[in-house]
Structure formats: C-alpha cells, structure tokens
Amino acid sequence: MRIVLLLVLATIGTAAAQAPAQRTSGALRGRVDIRRAAAAPERRPSVTELGTPAPRPVPDIRRAVVYLETAPRGAFEEDRPARLRMDQRNETFVPHLLAVATGTVVDFPNNDSTYHNVFSLSKAKRFDLGRYARGRSKAVRFDQPGMVRVFCDIHSHMSAFVLVFGHPYFATTDADGRYRIENIPPGTYAVVAWHEGQTRDSRSVTIPAQGGIVEQDFEVQ
Ligand SMILES: [Cu+2]
To answer: Please, is 60 exposed, middle or buried when counting C-beta atoms within 10 Å of its C-beta (0-12, 13-18, 19+)?
Structure first.
C-alpha cells in the first residue's frame, strides 16, 4: 500500500516539475548472485559412449531475470523485438530462459534429427504444437503476463521457461550475472530478481527525480 502511494506521489511530483518536452528517466543495473549455482553436474561419458556424438550440452540455468513488479504509469511504447526464437537443439531448448513482452511471437524451430512435441500447461499460455520434424518450426504468441513452463512431450528431460511481462521494464542477466534496465521513470519500485521459478529476491528501489543510474544487486538460489 505504501509503495503504491509513494509511486503515485512520485509520478505526480515529477509530472508537475518537468518541462513537457523533457522526460527524465533513470537506469537500474547490478548483478544477480546465484548462490549454490547448481551448475548441473557434468555427465561423465561412459565407455559405451565412445565414438558416439558428444553428450548434449547442459542447459544454461545461470540466467536470472530482473523486473519491476509494478510498472510505472504511462509508457508501454518501447520497440522490443516482437519476434524471438527458442531452438530445439541436441534435445535441449536454447535458450533455456526467455523474457518477453506481451504480444511477442516465439518461434520453436526443430534443429534435431528426432521429432519434438513442444507444449505448455501453464495458465499464462496453454499450447501443444504437436510433433514436427527437423527443419520445421511453429510459433506461439504470448499475450498474457505470467510464467510459462515449456516442455517436450517426447523428451522428459527437455524444459524451459518463458517469462511474459505486460511492460518493458525487465532484463535477463548476462553470462556474468549482470543486468541493466533502461528508461525507468523516477519513482520507487518493488524490483524482483527471479531464478528458475524457485526463488525471488525483492528490493525496494528508488529512481531519483533527476534520473541517473541506480545500482542494485540481488541474491537468489
Ligand atoms: Cu523433444
């Protein structure tokens, strides 16, 4: 309740103080430390695998997503790519995690020699793409905010996440765990770091009226 009030006050305050032509905004950046970074254990090749193709790559589970829990009033007119892709490669979804804005279309191309059957039972997006072979692709439009778990009906070890946001204030961490969210209007926000659907680290962050860069680190498991 207090956060909402602060947000409203901050919004009104800055709107009144600013010249109409100039819109101040800030950036939020920092690092997400993934504790016990459960780097999936490396598969030990066995004798029977000698001479067979390389073992499938371990999915990249070190990525986290940082986002504003409640979007500032006003803007959602940013140009985000409205089309992204999640490959099926070596019986793995690549990338393992996609963060998208509502309205984004995601292609699910099959780059394996086997069939796959991508589906989700998540409330935010239920779909079943059916079986299709190498070289073919099907697309899903994500039009409702929420967490979507993606699976393959044929390969139980295949899984991925699509996080859908109704605003543009989110970012996926890079290989070093760093993130950056741009163009945030001044105000106080609840900011969340998300990892693998298990942990959330929430902090209150204030973007000052004069804008600028605010640093905030997170810790998740
Ligand atoms: Cu599959």
So the answer is: middle
* Residue 160 Cα to ligand 1 middle (Å): 12
Residue 198, domain member (yes or no): yes
Q: CA-based angle 108:175:38, to the nearest 5?
A: 85
The Å distance, Cα 149 to ligand 1 centre, comes to 14
C-alpha of residue 50 to centroid of ligand 1, in Å: 24
Give the predicted TM-score (pTM) of the model.
Answer: 0.79
Which residues form the domain of 101?
Answer: 77-166
107 plus 138 within the same structural domain: yes
Boundary residue ending a domain (150, 166, 182): 166
What is the distance in A from the centroid of ligand 1 to the CA of 41? 21
Distance from Cα 147 to the centre of ligand 1, integer Å: 21
**pLDDT of res. 221:** 81
